[in-house]
Structure formats: C-alpha cells, structure tokens
Amino acid sequence: MLDTGSTGFMLLACSLVMLMTPGLALFYGGLATKRNILGIMIQSFVSQGWTTVLWVIFGYSLCFSGGEGGIIGNLDKAFLQGIGIDSMYSNGKIPELVFVAYQMMFAIITPALITGAFVNRVNFKAYFLFLTVWQILVYYPFVHMVWGGGLLAQWGVLDFAGGIVVHATAGFAALASVIYVGARVEKNSTPNSIPLVAIGSGLLWFGWYGFNAGSEVAVDFITSLAFLNTDIAASFATIAWLFVEWTKERKPKFIGLLTGSIAGLATITPCAGFVPLWSSPLIGIAAGLTCYYAVRFKNRMKWDDALDVWGVHGVGGVLGTILLGLFASKSVNIAGADGLFFGGSVFFGKQLLAVAGASLYAFVFTYVMLVIINYITPVKVTESTEKEGLDAALHGERAYDEGAL
Q: pTM (2 decimals)?
C-alpha cells in the first residue's frame, strides 16, 4: 500500500538532490577565474538536461532492471516501459516513478563533480562525449552492481548513498582527467567570487540531506539517523579542516572551511545509515584531516586538479567506504553488516577491495576514454583559447558585463 508520508518525503529528497547540481555550478563557478565562470557552470547544467534524456531512454533500465548478480542490467524498462502510474518500488512504500526520478538526480550530479578538476582546459564538444560515455560505461555499471542487485551487492558490499558509486568513481576519474589534460597555463589563478562559493556550498550541504537521508527510500528510524549523521560529520570535518589549515598557514581560511564541509559530506555518504551516531564525529574529523593532507599531497605532486575534486570527493569517498568497513553495525541497521570493530573482518576486506577496484577502473577507463575522444575531437583547448577564457572563446558569452555602470 502506498505510504504517503514516505512518498512525500522522497519527492522532497529528490528535489533537494536536484538542487545540488545548480549548487555545484555555483560552487565551481565561484572558484573559477572570471573568464571561465560560464564554461564550468554550463558543464553542470548540461548534465541536468542530457543525463535525463539518457536516463529515460535506457539509463534507469540498465541500472535497475534485470542483471541479478551481474555487472549491468537489461533494457526491459527502456523508455520507462512497463512502469505504470501505479507501479510500486520494491519496498512497497513509494511509486516506482518517484524512485526513477530520485536516482536520476544522482546520475546528473555524479559526472558534473568531475568537471572541477579540468576547469578552463577542455573543449565543450569533448566534454559532451565524455559525459555520455562515462555515464554509460562507468556510472551505470557501478549503480547496478551496488544498488541494482548486481555483482557487488550479491557479494555483500555496502554503500548507503554513494561513497563508491558516486565519489570514488568521480574523484579518480577527475585525477585521470587532470593527468591526461595537463596543467593550466595560469595554474595559480584565484577564485572570482568567494561569496558565490559560499552560496554553492550552502546549497550542496542543504541538498545533501536529501542525498543521504533519502537513500533509505522511506521514512523510518534509519532516515533520521542518516540525516543527523550527515550534519554531524560535515560539521566536525568543517572545523577540523579550519583548524589544521589555520595551524599550517597562520590564518583561518573561508575557502578551506567550505571545502572541509564538502569533504565531510562526501565521506559520511557511504556510512550515513549504517553506522552508530557516536561514530559520525570521528568520521568527520578523519575526513577533514585526511582530505586536507590529500590536497597538500596533490599540490606536491603538481597534479593540477584545479578545484580539488580528487582530494575531496575521491579521497573522501574511499575513506568513507573504508570507515564504513570499520564502524558498520547490524545493531544500528539490520540491513547492513558488522564492521571490523564489531567482528566483521570479512566485510571490511570486501569494502577495501570494492572501493579499490572501483577507483582503479574509473581511473584507467577515464584515461583511455579521453585518449579515444581526442581522436574524434580535441580534448584540450589551445593555449590562446585558454588565455582568452572559455566563456568568450567557446560560448560567446561573459558572466559579467564589465562595461556596464
């Protein structure tokens, strides 16, 4: 029977996750240079449209239809055929159409996360091909394997809201992109609008409640646990990053504080509904410190990940998946597992192998895919285009009319 409370909540959660993509566009847009604001923002917004097209045609079906124990689903629900207005999701509480929409929002934002790594260096045509192929051959298989009853789900791997499926894959794809594309001409460019970054960060944090709490796909005790775990971990990560950066650089940095919040949110994502409340402060502190030092390591390696996608999302997703392997407890969620701290050494090993395999696959596939795309159309813009800025050179627009009074 339809649960109207759960259905209403899931529609709200879906809307919150949708809001994260414009929030990401603002977050990245503020961090970009003034000549590249629109170039990075359009990459998020085009995913909003094109991913929906792909999702309706075959994406949802490949993720959530058939293929039990396998790598990918089938096309039985292509064009959403067979999903009637009264079709119910498998938990029997919400319409399947609501679940279709909710998961679509995850598919939209995941490839958009990658774009911050190669800001102001990639041709839009190449990005459009990247967006299409990466979803089909990286995102869809991992959604199916983890959340669609596929191989990793059958093996016992857990990921509450996307540590493996979203953040590890996107983060390591970002690293591969940076290594392939190379550094910016003006590597040490500064953000054009920190207030814009703050607005985007706030929208991301707000939307993350739908991202994590909504992943229970119902309204129950686990929903409230996931909600509070999310906020606590993000808050502790925010303060941990603030203080470690303050100690190192002698000044409290607003950008660092905002980045720390995203690190905490990414890290708690796989854990949110599977771990006890007391563990979320520890997860948050670990996220703030580990991701901060990951960014410093990236800088020493001279990887020009412009907006720290690997250090925040990639490392955060991997760290969260590992911490899930430590802190998960069936006493919290009977649908979960017992982590290493509760005697689940086998489960911990499975989490390690799964996130390592996902990260390696995303990295290697992304690098090879960019090599192939470059044969079709140049991936990297010319030096003159980069200096002019992608907004004017590729899109014929500017974010601000600097000649106006």
A: 0.95
C-beta of residue 333 within 8 angstroms of C-beta of residue 224:
no
Residue 41's CATH number: 1.10.3430.10
User: CA–CA separation, 100 vs 89, rounded Å?
Assistant: 9
Asked whether residue 179 is domain-assigned, the answer is: yes
Is residue 31 assigned to a domain?
A: yes
210/223 Cα distance (integer angstroms): 10
Tokens (6 digits) for 90: 């498998």
Burial 222-235 (b: 16+ CB within 10 A, else e): bbebbbebbbbbbb
201: tokens are 């960060």
CA torsion sign for 265, 270, 273, 277 is negative
Q: Could you list the residue range(s) of the whole structural domain that residue 171 is in?
A: 4-391
Cα(5)–Cα(227) distance, integer angstroms: 16
Composition of the chain by helix, strand, coil, percent to 5: 70, 0, 30
CA 27, distance to chain mean position in Å, is 14
Which stretches of 214-344 are DSSP H helices? 221-249, 254-268, 279-301, 309, 315-327
Tens of pLDDT, residues 260-318: 999 999 999 999 999 999 999 999 999 999 999 999 999 999 999 989 999 999 999 99
CA distance 28 to 39: 10
| Spatial separation of the C-alpha atoms in residues 112 and 41, rounded to whole Å | 9
Which tens digit of pLDDT belongs to each residue from 323-381? 999 999 999 999 999 999 999 999 999 999 999 999 999 999 999 999 999 999 999 99
Q: Is residue 199 part of a domain?
A: yes
CB-based contact 270:163 (threshold 8 Å): yes
Helix (H, G, I), strand (E, B) or coil at 88: strand
In angstroms, rounded to a whole number, what is the distance separating the alpha carbons of residues 310 and 118?
11
